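Revision sheet: structure tokens.
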Amino acid sequence: MAEAAWPFYVSAVIAGAAFGYVIQRGGFCLMRAVSNLFFMGDATIARAYALALLVAMVAVQALSAAGLVEVPIRPFHWMSNGIGGLLFGAGMVLSGGCSGSTWYRVGEGAVGAWVILLGFAMGATAVRVGALSSVRAALQAPAVTVADAPPTLATLLGLSPWIVITALWVAGGFWLFRSRGQAQHGKWPWHVTGAAVGALIAAGWWASSFGERASGITFAVNTGELLTYPLVGFPNRVNWSMVMVIAVPIGAFVAAWTAGDFRWKLPPGWSLVKIFSGGVVMGGSAILAEGCNITQGLTNGSTLAVGSLVTLASMLVGCWLTLRAMYGSAGGERFSFRIALVRRAPGESPGGTGGCPPGPR
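Predicted:
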């Protein structure tokens, strides 16, 4: 291997393994955040997610201001961002997890996560380069710009990014720290998880600059490429994001093994169609929305890109509406769900191996 290639691989492996370790130890999952709110009224994981985004905004802006990395701004394709986000939220409910948690559950020994990832890769491939690529292109055509550039909250409001970030911290901080939240069984406190994830999102922007271009920590396009590269040679070479995402379950395995969370888990046979379908929906909608909950919600949301933040909001709405459609009103379900938690296997964290109640284990 050429000497120049070492920074490429080392930076990708370290970034992916570190991210996998942290999100496993924190039980970090957008599906878990929404479902815990829906079923139990518990905002602990939601707070971790919000804190991660706020920390990443500060750190990414600092990296950009220091000239350490050139951070691109995602376009605001309002139609595809909105529709793709809604569908991704539905896919999370069907599969029982988000893109990041599915990858770290591989490292915990959850066989069902492999089923979801296969569906994710197939859905992503169909929408990106397959039969649904023309639909994707049509939905991604409408775009909103400000001064002929993709809008951010700062350019949209005509303010300094630091002023916008400060305002978000003031508003978000009031909600984050007004309540201590509920403790997670065997997991890191939410504020430790949120701060660590946010810092790694920013570090991912810098680390990915050792590749062809800075892309940050992502889980959408690269998951599909892990299927198409060995089958048809697309893309024509391994990229930074592909190496990074392979390292995520390695870091998660180390975290799970040292914490006693690792064990092989087979999903119920009846759930295979459901979780595979959820993976297909998540993969296809992630390509349509130009990113998953990590890619758009955190990595690109940290740049204040309006399109990314709209996508994240759409994912939250889609997840909540699907939970209501499948499980009825939250109030009527909370008691029975708490009973299910009490009956979990000895040593199992709340919500099963991935911490996401409706999904497979």
